[in-house]
Amino acid sequence: MKYFPAYRKSYLLIITIISLCFLLIQCIDRGRRKNETSEIENTKFNEFAGSESCRKCHAQVYNDFILTGHFSTSTPASAQSILGSFEEGKNTFHYRKGLYVSMEKTDSGFYQVEYVDSIRKIARKFDITVGSGERGQTYLSWQGNLLTLLPVSYLTSTNSWANNPGQHNQIFFDAPVSATCLQCHTSYAEVIPFRLVNAPEEFNPKKIIYGISCERCHGPAAQHVAYQTENPNDKSGKFIIKPSTFSRTQSLDMCAVCHGGRIKNLKPPFSFQSGNRLSEYYQFDTLGTNNLIDVHGNQYGLLKKSKCFQTSQLTCITCHSPHKNEEGNLRLFSQKCMTCHNEQHGTFCKINPITNSISANCIDCHMPEQPSKSIVLQLENNKIPTAQLLRTHDIAIYPAATKEFLKNEKKKESGD
């Protein structure tokens, strides 16, 4: 009989334990990844009914909603959805001498094409438009299951093509698009699981719901639609999320998921649904109370700083109707301000005299447009980048903005 020294037995025991631990870790990791996949699949593509299915019972709401910026914040690229010009003389963006991108239309679609010294180098297809066009658009291209950002965007205020933010004088065709981006410009995008560590996320091109649709706030509606079709006289609204019943925190969380600043996913993409506690799904940027909050993408962070928010039960939908296009309607928003700020409450505007235009516009003085730090585009032949102007949601007194507003009002009155 062969005997092993004691130290060899200990060595074999240690090796065995290490091997078992390794196998256990692998099983746990596979289980964790399987669970993550299952959680993604908790909201399956086939659980969505599509906004069009809401039309039969909610025709007026549907007809109003499809005119909003939310609804059109992403769409398949087409002649109708791409706002920039493909007309010769208006379809190029020059980075420097000999280097430019040409926007070209062919029988197979629309393309951004890189030229170096007039030699065609790279051509990538416009597949998705991102942005309603109120201020601009950005464009995405499929490379297999990977979505990449095309280098040239469109700026509405100048009706021209522009270089993407942060890409001055350089052409990038391969910047990957993450689920974090799609979470705020689509209602659902199926993420393909089991990617390599640090590899870009991939998506199923056939399982994307474009725009911020009815189901982004009301939840996947296939079960609701099926039930209501079978039970048209039941008006209780089963199997659907009802934001009108939300607490203040739930209502704010519903909007803050996209208007609350930079976030990091704590759970799989698209697993958050309206009514959930946002902090359980996302870790937010800690720059919540300082001057670094940007006017783009963190309206909630700015709103929280305001006295209006802190001394009332104000939520986003106090002022914004989620179902109607109210963009730029300063009179309407001002009327909402004056439900609290009025002579009866002793909180009305102190400017004297109060003209009709002043009483119809609280916004330009108390929520002026400010340049975004994150949305800065490079225009052709312009060395100074152009920042997008967006309204601050830190409702306050802005002396410089008020002075400028009154000066413009005097010009209007004098006819200058």
Could you outline the blueprint of secondary structure elements for this entry?
Elements: H1 6-42, H2 59-65, E1 74-76, E2 92-96, E3 99-106, E4 109-116, E5 119-125, E6 128-130, E7 136-143, E8 146-149, E9 152-155, E10 160-163, E11 175-176, H3 179-182, E12 186-191, E13 203-210, H4 214-218, H5 222-230, H6 248-259, E14 263-265, E15 282-284, H7 299-305, H8 307-310, H9 316-319, H10 330-337, H11 356-359, H12 363-366, E16 369-379, E17 386-391, H13 399-414
Antiparallel strand pairs: 1-6, 2-3, 3-4, 4-5, 6-7, 7-8, 7-9, 8-11, 9-10, 10-16, 12-13, 14-15, 16-17
InterPro entries: Cyt_c-552/4, Multihaem_cyt_sf, Multiheme_Cytochr_ET
Domain Cytochrome c-552/4: 177-219
Protein name: Cytochrome c-552/4 domain-containing protein
Report the β-strand fraction as a percent range: 15-25%
Q: How many beta-strand segments?
A: 17
Radius of gyration: 26 Å
How would you sum up the major sheet?
9 strands, antiparallel
Mean pLDDT: 87
Structural class: alpha+beta
Terminal Cα separation, in Å? Answer: 111 Å
Number of helices: 13
| Secondary-structure element string | HHEEEEEEEEEEEHEEHHHEEHHHHHHEEH
What coarse outline follows from CA principal-axis ratios?
A: globular
Unreliably modeled segments: 11-41
Helix content: 25-40%
Domain Cytochrome c-552/4: 177-219
Organism: Hanamia caeni
InterPro entries: Cyt_c-552/4, Multihaem_cyt_sf, Multiheme_Cytochr_ET
Protein name: Cytochrome c-552/4 domain-containing protein
